[in-house]
Write a structure and sequence with these properties.
This protein is of the alpha+beta class and 463 residues long. The protein contains 21 helices and 10 strands. Bound molecules: manganese (II) ion.
Length: 463
């Protein structure tokens, strides 16, 4: 309650009432680990409050298990809390019911994931707060997963890695994605986890020490150049994301330059570029590692400048530069838009065009696909890594990793796709099964006689 007191748009009395109602309803119930059940509801609501969501979402966080696990009915909720909060609680409840309705013996894991993914996405399309409460619920269930039976642990943890964490990433809530993955990691791959932690522990400590030293030097350089810095901190790479990255580098830790990175927050965009210039005057950048996600944001809206530089003592380190607003977006993603709403701007700003477009596309897709198909398509199209490809006019198309010129042609226009005769990448002719890489300029050569063949299905990655 204390942290809500400073938030003028939060109806603290209503939140308190939701707490009292939930506490009374769950009285006598306890979690698998023995704590009173209400501790779970509080943990969920607390996280929702940290995301700076509104009163309805916080209250629904407190009440999220009442319909499922207590005597309270929908009518009770609606009478006391109104339609909006009841709708949110119902939404979260429906999402949770999936595991009780399926019999693992007759349903494949993939079908199970397809089902839960479909529900999550449908809920998301209706009201993003439902999915955020569900993610908060999953986060706390993972934090207390050790108390559960072993089969349940494995299932919940794996489902988190497969579905919940990618969704958190797509929603742009970077730290939640990292937290979900790191909570699930030891349950899904216990051996790899313990091996990695042992291997990395010393280097993380050493890296932190090193960044602390570097931080002073970098801040001194920036101050000398008259660059104003809002704040600067070390950020440590999450274990699971490190594990996945190391798999790409033969598990060689020496190949990883961003185990610990320096994150500098600067007042505005111009200052970010200015700071990058100053840093490169003092530290030589590693070629190919300067990334301008300010001019070219990631699909989930992430913006920052990244550069990896030589520290002068044979070591390299990564620096990330961003404005406070970019930082808020990187941490809170779509939830940041609710924070704007809270600070007095209109609620219509809660989703920018891109996110709305994404949800619209999903809706259309869900209407026409069966579940297994949908899951496969989504796995490929939405949850995997993306490449960014330019049209000759400089427009950006984002495609799944491994996309070919044909995918690009269809992304530009279906008609262009149908009449693809050939393709040029950066001015050179390539085969239609050529694997595109981010930053390439692709030009499609149209041919009147070309038309889709069955063979093309083999060459195409997108749905
Ligand atoms: Mn719950």
């Amino acid at each position: 309650m204390q942290k809500l007191a400073t938030r003028p748009n939060i109806d603290v009395a209503l939140v308190r009432l939701a707490y009292q109602t939930a506490a009374a309803a769950h009285r006598g119930q306890s979690r698998a680990g023995g704590e009173p059940y209400i501790t779970h509801c509080l943990a969920v609501a607390d996280f929702i409050a940290d995301l700076h969501l509104d009163t309805a979402a916080i209250a629904a966080g407190l009440l999220h298990d009442t319909l499922e696990d207590t005597e309270l009915t929908e009518a009770d909720l609606e009478k006391q809390f109104g339609k909006e909060i009841t709708f949110l609680v119902k939404g979260v409840t429906k999402l949770g019911q999936i595991q009780y309705q399926t019999q693992p013996s007759v349903v494949s894991k993939q079908q199970l994931y397809a089902k839960s993914l479909r529900r999550l996405l449908l809920a998301m399309a209706k009201d993003i707060r439902v999915i955020l409460i569900k993610l908060a619920d999953r986060r706390h269930n993972l934090a207390t997963l050790a108390d559960k039976a072993p089969e349940a642990r494995q299932r919940i943890a794996l489902e988190t890695l497969e579905i919940y964490a990618p969704i958190a990433e797509r929603l742009g809530i970077g730290y939640l994605k990292g937290q979900l993955e790191d909570l699930a990691f030891p349950f899904v791959y216990p051996q790899a986890y313990h091996h990695l932690v042992k291997q990395v522990k010393q280097q993380v400590t050493a890296g932190q020490k090193y960044i602390t030293k570097v931080r002073h030097a970098v801040l001194a350089n920036l101050a000398q150049a008259g660059v104003i810095v809002t704040s600067a901190d070390a950020r440590i790479k999450h274990y699971y994301s490190l594990y996945k990255k190391m798999q790409r580098f033969d598990m060689d830790l020496n190949q990883i330059n961003d185990l610990v990175a320096l994150r500098v927050i600067l007042p505005d965009v111009a200052t970010c570029y200015e700071a990058l210039g100053v840093i490169h005057q003092h530290y030589r950048p590693l070629p190919g590692r300067i990334k301008d996600y300010i001019a070219l944001p990631r699909l989930n809206g992430y913006q920052s400048l990244h550069t990896t530089v030589f520290g002068g003592d044979g070591r390299m380190f990564e620096i990330q530069l961003r404005t406070p607003e970019m930082h808020r977006h990187a941490e809170h993603g779509v939830a940041a838009h609710w924070a704007y709403a809270e600070s007095g701007k209109s609620k219509t700003s809660r989703a920018d065009g891109r996110e709305v477009e994404w949800v619209k596309q999903l809706k259309a897709w869900m209407e026409e696909s069966d579940e297994t198909e949908l899951y496969k398509g989504l796995k490929i199209d939405f949850l995997n890594d993306r490449v960014f490809i330019f049209t000759p006019q400089g427009d950006i198309k984002d495609l799944p990793e491994g996309a070919t010129p044909l995918d690009f042609a269809y992304a530009v226009h279906t008609e262009i796709g149908h009449h693809t005769g050939g393709a040029k990448v950066n001015g050179k002719l390539v085969a239609l099964d050529y694997e595109l890489e981010s930053g390439q300029v692709v030009e499609i050569i149209k041919s009147k006689t070309a038309h889709p063949t069955l063979d093309w299905l083999r060459l195409i990655k997108t749905a």
